Fold this sequence. Notes:
The protein is mostly helical. It folds into two domains: 1-109; 114-227, no CATH class. It is 76% helix and 0% strand. The protein contains nine helices and no strands. Keywords: Membrane, Transmembrane, Transmembrane helix.
Amino acid sequence: xxxxxxTALIVAGIAILIAIGYINHMVxxxxxxxxxxxxxxxxxxRRSRDVSDNMPGQLMSPALKLMLSRLELQxxxxxxxxxxxxxxxxxxxxxxxxxxxxxxxxxxRNPPQQIVNEAKAKEVRFLLENLHGQIxxxxxxxxxxxxxxxxxxxEIRHILVxxxxxFFSNLGxxxxxxxxxxxxxxxxxxxxxxxxxQSDPERYKPQLQQLEQLLARANAVVLEKNQPAADExxxxxxxxxxxxxxxxxxxxxxx
Length: 255
């Protein structure tokens, strides 16, 4: 065997080893990318379903339920080729297709939830932040048309205002029931200030008027509680009553 042939075989062997290494590298990268994509899709599906299932009923509309179901369906259909043996995923896709086919008649089974403390308000706010992120990314990927995504981002701001209105109203009413009109007044004041800061105050005029009425009522109760009774005497009133008119005049002269 000539030296040239030996050299050629060695070079060919090295090239084959490099090619095998490159192919293995590509296969591993493909597996890692599929695993990353599968994990990402599962996370987005979970987040969409979390909003759909846990949003308080008074803040969930059929239109929002439909949009979330459509979004979950699109993500699930993307996931299916990466997880073909997932029977639960196939079943869920069937359920989502049936829901989306109902359009505006889609059922909304979310029960109403009382928002009476800061922890609950933060929980709902987190759901809205989650929804905002889902819509923004879906628009970037073309799952939602840009104009529809813009409309939904505006709707999220509206739901956030509703959340604050309900929170401050309930907080104030709870304080009034506990005979704490001062705390109620503070809650109503915060609600009024929040609504007055909105870019579209006309839209929230009824809610603002309601809070202003509640604020006036709480303020009246506070003033009534702080007003001394007719038969009560504090140090100042006792001192004034002890001064006769002549004495008062004399004090004015000599002071």
